[in-house]
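Ticket #4471: structure output looks truncated?

Reporter: J.K.
Steps to reproduce: submitted the chain below (144 residues) through the standard prediction queue, then opened the result file.
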Amino acid sequence: MKVKIINRSHHALPQYATEQSAGVDLRANLDSPIEIRPMERCLVPTGLFMSLPKGYEAQVRPRSGLAIKRGITVLNSPGTIDADYRGEVCVILINLSSEPFIIEDGERIAQMVIARHEQAEWEQVEVLDETERGAGGFGHSGVK
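Returned output as attached by the reporter:
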């Protein structure tokens, strides 16, 4: 699939690390470093602008290494970039650790996955079909 992209960052276009990678790394595009203190959140620019095909979205997800090693994650995970959005791709990061974290220009801050989606056509009814689970909610399937 071809995706039109404008790169106003200081960095190369995002690339897939391996032949079977689902996502590409997004890099911070900064004029100066950003410090995120514990429990603080910030919006980090990437310098990327894109036009996705109709029926697709870009999902912005945390990088597992930053999450486990530094406590840095994407706050609205996964963040959704709609096909009709034309603004800069930015990432909402939060520091869940007890130590300040410095984001440097070019740092890999998140990953982005392009995914197909459908739009629902709502059909209002009075009764839903029965299932074995029924209305069982969180923890309904037990612990095994």
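Triage note (M.O.): checked the attachment and the full token line is present. The domain at 4-8+23-116 is CATH 2.70.40.10 (Deoxyuridine 5'-Triphosphate Nucleotidohydrolase; Chain A).
Status: closed, working as intended.
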